[in-house]
Design brief:
The structure is a single chain. The chain has about 400 residues and is an alpha/beta fold. The protein folds into three domains: about 50-215, 3-Layer(aba) Sandwich (Rossmann fold); about 220-275 and about 295-305, Orthogonal Bundle (Helicase, Ruva Protein, domain 3), CATH 1.10.8; about 310-410, Zinc Finger, Delta Prime, domain 3 (Up-down Bundle). About 50% of the residues lie in helices and about 5% in strands. It contains 16 helices and seven strands. Strand 3, helix 6 (about 175-185) and strand 4 (about 190-195) form a beta-alpha-beta unit. The chain is globular and about 80 Å long. The termini are far apart.
Length: about 400
C-alpha cells in the first residue's frame, strides 16, 4: 500500500473537525492529511509512522490497482463522483481520500478546499446541518491557482470542494438522511468522500448516491514490502520471521503494522539510552551530546511478547498437550489458562495448527474444528470465564481422543 519516499515527506498541521487549514490547535492523531506540509505539531516530537510514510499522491499507493485506475480516470476526465470507500481498517481508504484531495488542489493548499470530519468529531444532525452546510456554501479556493498544483486538474478545482467523512458508519441515521439531502443540494459545488468499515451501516439512500469501492485486506506481499522499506529507512534489523510475525498479527492492517513496529523501536531505543546512561555513570563520563541512534534489532519473540501473545513454539506445545496429555485434566486446564493473552486470542492459532495436522480421516478433523467453533461461539455470546471455556475445550478434545482410540481398537 505504501511506497517509501527517498526522504520522509514533509509534515503538516494536524486536522480537527474545523475546515482543513484552520488555525484551531490540533492534537496528535492519525486523521486525514496529517503530513500535508510544514511541521507536525506533536508535543513529544515523535511523528507517527502512519503519517510519516503516508503517500501523498495516487501514484505512490500500492495495492487496489483496479480501484486506483478507476479513480485516475475520474480525475483525468474531470468527472469525479461522490465516493464511498468501505472495507477493513488499515487498508488505505483514508490514504486514498487524502491523495485524491492533494492531487486535485495541490499538496500545500488542499486543506483550503477540503473539510474532514473523523471519528473524534461530533457528527450529529447539527454538525451536518451547520458545519458541513456552511463549508459547502462558501466559495472554493480551488477557483484560484497556487504553485505546485497540477494544471491537468485546473477545471475540476474550479468546479467543487471536497468533504471527507471518515468512519461514517458511526453516524446516526438522522444525520445520514440530512447528509443525503445535502449531497443533492450542493451537487454542483461539492463532492463527498464517505469512508466506513461496514457499508451495511450506511443508509441505502446514501449508498445509491455514491460510487462504492470496497478496499479488501492488503495482500501479504504488500505488507511485507512496506515493512522492509520502513525498516531499511529507520535502521531496523528485522529478520524474515519477525516480518512474518508482524504481518500475521496485523491481519492485513498496515496501520497496525507500522504502529507495532514503531512502538517496538521506541522501547528498544529507550533500553539503549538507559544502558548508555548507566555506562556513562559507571565510568564517570559526562558526555551530554545526543547519541546517534544505533540500529535496532526486532525479533519474532519480542513481537509476540510485546503483544502478550503466545509464540508459535508455545502454540505448538499447547496443541501437543491437547492431543497427547494423559494426566489430570484439571492440570491441563490450568496450563491452558496460564498461557499468555487469553484463550479467545489463542483459538485462531489453535485452529490454524489443527488445520495443518494429519488426522486418520476427515471426520476427526471436523470433530476437532467443531469443538473449537463451539468455544468460539460461547465467547461470541458473551462468555468471559476463560477457565470454564478452557475446561470445556479440554473435555471435548479428551472425549474425542477416547472415541478415536475406541474406534481404532474396534477396527483392529
Amino acid at each position: 500500500m505504501f511506497q517509501m519516499p527517498l526522504a520522509p515527506p514533509s509534515s503538516g498541521q494536524l486536522t480537527t473537525s474545523a475546515p482543513l487549514g484552520s488555525t484551531t490547535p490540533a492534537t496528535a492523531s492519525t486523521s486525514l492529511g496529517a503530513n500535508g506540509g510544514g511541521e507536525l505539531a506533536y508535543k513529544d516530537g515523535v511523528v507517527p509512522w502512519v503519517e510519516k510514510y503516508r503517500p501523498d499522491n495516487l501514484e505512490k499507493i500500492h495495492g487496489h490497482e483496479e480501484i486506483l485506475s478507476t479513480i485516475r480516470r475520474f480525475l483525468k476526465t474531470n468527472q469525479l463522483p461522490n465516493l464511498l470507500f468501505h472495507g477493513p481498517a488499515g487498508t488505505g481508504k483514508t490514504t486514498t481520500a487524502v491523495a485524491i484531495c492533494k492531487q486535485i488542489f495541490g499538496k500545500d493548499e488542499y486543506k483550503l478546499s477540503t473539510l474532514e470530519l473523523n471519528a473524534s468529531d461530533d457528527r450529529g444532525i447539527n454538525v451536518i446541518r451547520n458545519e458541513v452546510k456552511n463549508f459547502s456554501q462558501t466559495t472554493s479556493f480551488g477557483s484560484f491557482t497556487f504553485s505546485g498544483q497540477d494544471p491537468e486538474h485546473a477545471s475540476i478545482r474550479r468546479q467543487f470542494k471536497v468533504v471527507v467523512l471518515d468512519e461514517a458508519d458511526s453516524m446516526i441515521n438522522t444525520a445520514q438522511f440530512a447528509l443525503r439531502r445535502m449531497i443533492e443540494q450542493y451537487a454542483n459545488s461539492v463532492r463527498f468522500i464517505i469512508i466506513c468499515n461496514f457499508a451495511h451501516k450506511i443508509i441505502p439512500a446514501l449508498v445509491s448516491r455514491c460510487t462504492s469501492f470496497r478496499f479488501s485486506v492488503l495482500p501479504e506481499e504488500h505488507t511485507v514490502a512496506c515493512v522492509r522499506k520502513v525498516a531499511e529507512h529507520e535502521k531496523i534489523k528485522c529478520d524474515e520471521l519477525a516480518i512474518q510475525a508482524l504481518q500475521k498479527c496485523s491481519k492485513g492492517d498496515l496501520r497496525k503494522v507500522l504502529n507495532m513496529l514503531q512502538s517496538l523501536v521506541i522501547l528498544e531505543r529507550a533500553k539503549q539510552s538507559t544502558s548508555t546512561t548507566t555506562a556513562n555513570s559507571c565510568t564517570g563520563s559526562d558526555n551530554k551530546s545526543r547519541p546517534v541512534a544505533s540500529p535496532v534489532k526486532i525479533t519474532e519473540d519480542e513481537i509476540y511478547r510485546s503483544l502478550g501473545l503466545c509464540t508459535p513454539s508455545e502454540v505448538d506445545h499447547v496443541v501437543r498437550q491437547l492431543l497427547t496429555y494423559t494426566g489430570d485434566p484439571d492440570d491441563l486446564v490450568r496450563s491452558l489458562c496460564s498461557q499468555k493473552g487469553n484463550l479467545q486470542s489463542l483459538l485462531p492459532e489453535l485452529h490454524a495448527r489443527f488445520a495443518k495436522l494429519t488426522f486418520q480421516n476427515l471426520e476427526q478433523r471436523k470433530q476437532v474444528m467443531d469443538a473449537l467453533a463451539k468455544v468460539e461461539h460461547r465467547f461470541c455470546l458473551g462468555s468471559f470465564k476463560t477457565e470454564f471455556e478452557a475446561a470445556y475445550l479440554v473435555n471435548e478434545i479428551m472425549m474425542l481422543r477416547a472415541k478415536w482410540k475406541h474406534q481404532a481398537a474396534m477396527g483392529a
